[in-house]
Design brief:
By secondary structure, the protein is of the alpha+beta class. It is 63% helix and 17% strand.
Length: 489
């Protein structure tokens, strides 16, 4: 990357002091990020990046959270619920005053408030079994995430090895091209000395042109391999990526193991198998949950309610007043008399006081006994049993597929070792033949055509060995994967 520092210097001194500081901080941050982004990263770092950005893992992580929510919901069924309600009404005409249960013909504003709670005491073990089932499903979801992480690590290792293979191909192709160029120099010297015809030079030039094409093809393969690695990691295609080139060690003979021993280890540590076991146990609990519907449900509840009405009245005060005079005749003489009487006044009862006066509490037990349900419970039990059988068969099928896959992995590893040994012997033979022809070429006892063909055979043998090498390493990693070993290079 070319940076015009003079141009940046002119911009820097043309702006204000405050902006200079901001620009300097931004430049230092960007430059440090650029340097950091160009640092080669190891396989472990690639895997860690993928674990944070892979979309399949994000989906599995959401399923983990969903299973945790389901467990919380099932546990909460053990607790009592509590709900409150408030209602306000306005009535015209003849209606009932809720505070006195008497008829009223005036307009009435009423308000009712209540709290109610209910708790299940017995439900045929459905809640307990539902909690156990949710725990097993949550464990299965966690193991699914672990299995997904392992699968991502293996796919990253494969893509990582493809990049290393492509880079090694480029190195070999470059070395081969340099060899043909040296051969061209040697040919020119022999032609100048009169030991070789001028047409020999055309043969070498043809091989150089072919070598250029091969090098370009390998560079394209490297770009494709990096793209595949970025896709597996969940990295943006525009991001800079360069990997560390580790010293790859070939697997030892100890990696060869019998099917039974590898399978026994895999069954105990493969998250997919363990998750299948939890799902099988969960489906078995589903039968118990369905059977629990045959039992009666016993629950206890309580309610607290009160109400208010705008017509609610209470005694205000009582006054003793003298009534009006009434004319009368006493012994024939006119007179007037009056009586004292009570004068009672009322006032509206305050809102909170009405709620206190009208407060009521109720406690109840409820027993719900299923008698005839149109076959619903029996159907649920049958479905739960079928679901258990299907889950069990699927779990057994997964274990059978695992055994088949492990057997194939062991066979592939054994075959890959034999192919590597054969390719190594082939390379050594081709190398010896080429070196012998090269010596004879230098003293003029063989021609360019024979030397070029020997070199091509040597290069093909080297390529075959390289392919066998990376194939052997990856097949060994697959077996390590089933043995529960960490994927490293």
């Amino acid at each position: 990357m070319d940076i015009n520092f003079n141009y940046l210097k002119q911009i820097f001194f043309a702006i204000g002091t405050k902006r200079k500081s901001l620009l300097l901080l931004y430049f230092l941050y960007s430059f440090s990020f650029l340097i950091h982004s160009q640092n080669p990263i190891s396989l472990e770092e690639c895997i860690q990046f993928a674990l944070k950005n892979n979309l399949n893992l994000k989906n599995l992580n959401l399923q983990k959270e969903q299973s945790a929510v389901n467990l919380y919901a099932n546990k909460s069924q053990q607790l009592p619920n509590l709900s409150g309600s408030v209602s306000v009404g306005y009535n015209l005409g003849r209606t009932i005053d809720p505070t006195s249960n008497t008829f009223a013909t005036q307009s009435l504003t009423s308000n009712s408030v209540s709290l109610s709670s209910n708790m299940i005491l017995f439900q045929g073990g459905q809640i307990r079994n539902s909690i156990s089932q949710a725990k097993k499903l949550m464990s299965a979801a966690n193991l699914d995430f672990d299995q997904g992480s392992n699968d991502v690590a293996l796919s990253i290792a494969q893509a990582y090895l493809q990049v290393l293979f492509a880079e090694e191909n480029i190195t070999n192709a470059t070395r081969s091209l340099d060899g043909f160029k040296k051969q061209l120099d040697q040919t020119d010297k022999l032609i100048a000395a009169g030991s070789r015809p001028k047409n020999d030079r055309l043969e070498v030039l043809s091989q150089i042109a072919t070598g250029d094409q091969t090098l370009i093809s390998f560079k394209n393969s490297l770009e494709t391999s990096y793209i595949n690695l970025k896709l597996a990691m969940g990295m943006d295609m525009d991001a800079q990526l360069q990997i560390v080139k580790p010293d790859l060690a070939l697997p030892t003979d100890e990696a060869d193991m019998a099917l039974a021993s590898v399978y026994n280890v895999a069954v105990q540590n493969q998250p997919s198998v363990l998750a299948g076991n939890f799902r099988e146990e969960s489906s078995l609990l589903g039968i118990q949950i369905a059977k629990g519907q045959r039992w009666p449900t016993l629950s206890i509840g309580a309610s607290l309610q009160s109400n208010y009405a705008s017509l609610g009245k209470e005694l205000d005060k009582i006054n003793i007043v003298r009534g009006s005079e009434t004319p009368v005749f006493i012994n024939g003489d006119p007179a007037s008399i009056s009586f004292y009487q009570q004068e009672v006044t009322y006032k509206n009862t305050p809102y909170l006081k009405q709620l206190d006066q009208n407060l009521g509490l109720g406690i109840f037990l409820s027993l719900n006994v299923p008698i005839i349900d149109n076959g619903r419970i029996k159907s649920n039990i049958d479905r739960a049993r079928l679901n258990y059988e299907l889950t069990k068969v699927q779990n057994d099928l997964n274990k059978q597929n695992l055994k088949t896959t492990i057997q194939r992995a062991i066979t592939d590893l054994s075959t890959a070792k034999k192919q590597y040994v054969a390719s190594e012997a082939g390379e050594n033979a081709a190398k010896a033949f080429y070196e012998d022809l090269n010596k004879r070429f230098k003293i003029g006892t063989t021609n360019n055509f024979e030397l070029s063909n020997a070199k091509i055979r040597y290069e093909n043998a080297t390529l075959n060995k390289l392919i066998a090498k990376y194939d052997l390493i990856f097949k060994a990693k697959i077996l390590d994967f089933y043995l529960g070993k960490k994927i490293t290079l």
